[in-house]
Amino acid sequence: MKALLFITLGFLFASILIYAEAFHWQRIQEMFHFKSFHMFGLLFSAIGTAALGLLLIKRLNIKNVKGESIELKKKPMAFYSNFFGGLIFGAGWGISGACAAPLFILIGFNWKIGLIGVLGALLGAFLYGFVKPKLRH
Amino acid sequence: MEAPLLPWYIAGPLLGLFVPVFIILSGKQLGISSSFRLLVAAVAGKRIEYFNYNYRNDLWQAYLVIGLILASVVHFQFLNVSAALSPAPYSEVNPLLFLFGGALIGFGSRYANGCTAGHCIMGNAQFSLASFVATIGFFLGGLTVSQFLIPLIF
């Protein structure tokens, strides 16, 4: 049951990204060259709508489906890792034209490229885990 | 490039709406790149501290990924959505370059503690400073590579 819920949610999330073409190499290159407003509009309106939704959850004290009150956790601030990890992630986004979810979405689009991308991401995550104790955060 | 299948002013609010809906239905906060850690932990075991955690509590991240892949197979293989898209130059992409790009995404998202979903959308919607800093990093890194490195390759 829990599995089905998350599979459905993943399916919905990917469907929006697919129809908005946010997984598409060309759309990402357009964005980084400021040639189209599409990706910026997508991200800004998504952040705005999400912020409004979270505000409503807080103000109206909306409970989750289990009836528990919702307590949002903020990611801890760690300037060095947020910024330099962000730079590295961004470089990968620019090279592959896909971020995390789109790497999985590429599997259905072009399975060879998709699997190579996911394999790369797992290798990268493994490498991070390996060198984490030596990195400044 | 032609107009996207779904314009931003529909897709963006839908993505944004997905964030509170996800929290209400699942009790979890949206994020995708944590699944990289989970998938490696499931394979690589406990020898590395970062992967030595009880990943079974986070199996929902794997189910989320199954949903992403399922959606892409349904849309591209059965509904033939890709016919409506401009062809992407993936075939021209050197597989090694793509592997490298993927590795930067995996390394960077774990180092930054989030990706476009967790930081850029979810985190910024919470006005989290960490997510704001990470988002600046995402765009500086992407802009630099896309403007200066990609033209050298294509």
How would you describe this structure in keywords?
heterodimer, A: 137 residues, mainly alpha, 2 domains, 71% helix, 0% strand, B: 154 residues, globular
Give an overview of the whole structure.
With 137 residues, chain A is mainly alpha-helical. Chain A folds into two domains: 1-73; 77-137, no CATH class. Helices cover 71% and strands 0% of the residues of chain A. Chain A has helices spanning 2-19, 25-32, 38-59, 79-96, 100-109, 111-131. In chain A, helix 5 runs antiparallel to helix 6. The N and C termini of chain A lie far apart (38 Å). The mean pLDDT of chain A is 95. Chain B has 154 residues and is an all-alpha fold. The model of chain B has no long low-confidence stretch (mean pLDDT 92). In chain B, helix 5 runs antiparallel to helix 6. Chains A and B meet through helix 1, helix 2, helix 3, helix 4 and helix 5 of A and helix 1, helix 2, helix 3, helix 4 and helix 5 of B.
Describe the secondary-structure layout.
The complex is a heterodimer of chains A (137) and B (154).
Chain A: H1 2-19, H2 25-32, H3 38-59, H4 79-96, H5 100-109, H6 111-131
Chain B: H1 8-26, H2 34-44, H3 60-78, H4 95-112, H5 116-125, H6 129-153
Strand content of chain A: under 5%
Helix proportion of chain A: over 70%
Helix content of chain B: 55-70%
Strand content of chain B: under 5%
H/E series of chain B: HHHHHH
Total strand count of chain B, please?
0
By secondary-structure content and strand pairing, the structural class of chain B works out as: mainly alpha
Give the radius of gyration of chain A.
18 Å
Mean pLDDT of chain A: 95
| Overall SS class of chain A | mainly alpha
- Quaternary class: heterodimer
